[in-house]
Design a protein that fits this description.
Blueprint (H helix, E strand, L loop, with lengths): L22 H22 L5 E2 L5 H6 L5 H6 L6 E2 L14 H10 L7 E6 L2 H4 L12 H11 L4 E4 L10 H14 L2
Parallel strand pairs: 1-2, 2-3, 3-4
């Protein structure tokens, strides 16, 4: 990578990894890595750096050992957060409407922007929480994100929007109308 003094940017690899560490120690190591990556990027060029974590905060903290809630409210970690909220409105435990409000409620530094990651591919893969899509899911999701103070959105599997599926064509048409408002 141009501008990097060496591969890895001076980050040392622990010979033991996470073996024998408590959950708190693991979260601290992951946070230290994120802070070092952020600093390394900013030392080269002032471009935005962010994280796109699982949309399930419990999974972030307890499985990935990523305390993204702390990173959002502290300086020196991220410029933006883009949780992967790929679930539909009818998901049994992570329904989109409640999950987007939960993430909007997390404290964050005024400089940290919040985007939402959307997963329209789920309409094509038969996910039951997208099965009731009426051609307006994506547009409603973007509207809900705007109403909740999000700065924008990202699409996972952008190519799925152009799959040739008639349901996805309806989603694109409605989304286009929302984006023009």
């Amino acid at each position: 990578m141009e501008g990097c003094p060496q591969q890895g940017g001076g980050l040392e690899k622990s010979p033991k990894g996470f073996d024998g560490l408590s959950s708190t120690q693991r979260r601290n190591q992951v946070s230290d890595l994120v802070r070092k990556v952020y600093s390394a990027i900013k030392s080269i060029r002032n471009i935005p750096f962010g994280i796109s974590p699982s949309g399930d905060m419990s999974s972030c903290r307890n499985t990935s050992f990523a305390p993204v809630d702390q990173w959002m409210k502290s300086s020196g970690y991220i410029d933006y957060i883009c949780p992967q909220l790929y679930w539909g409105y009818t998901h049994s435990s992570m329904a989109f409407s409640s999950t987007i409000r939960t993430w909007a409620g997390y404290s964050r530094s005024g400089s940290v922007k919040r985007y939402v990651g959307l997963g329209p591919y789920r309409l094509l893969d038969g996910s039951s929480d997208w099965a009731t899509s009426d051609g307006a899911y994506l547009g409603r999701m973007v509207s809900d994100a705007r109403a909740s103070g999000y700065s924008g959105f990202c699409i996972y599997r952008y190519a799925s929007l152009f799959s040739g599926d008639s349901r996805m064509a309806a989603e694109r048409t409605y989304l286009r109308s929302i984006l023009r408002r």
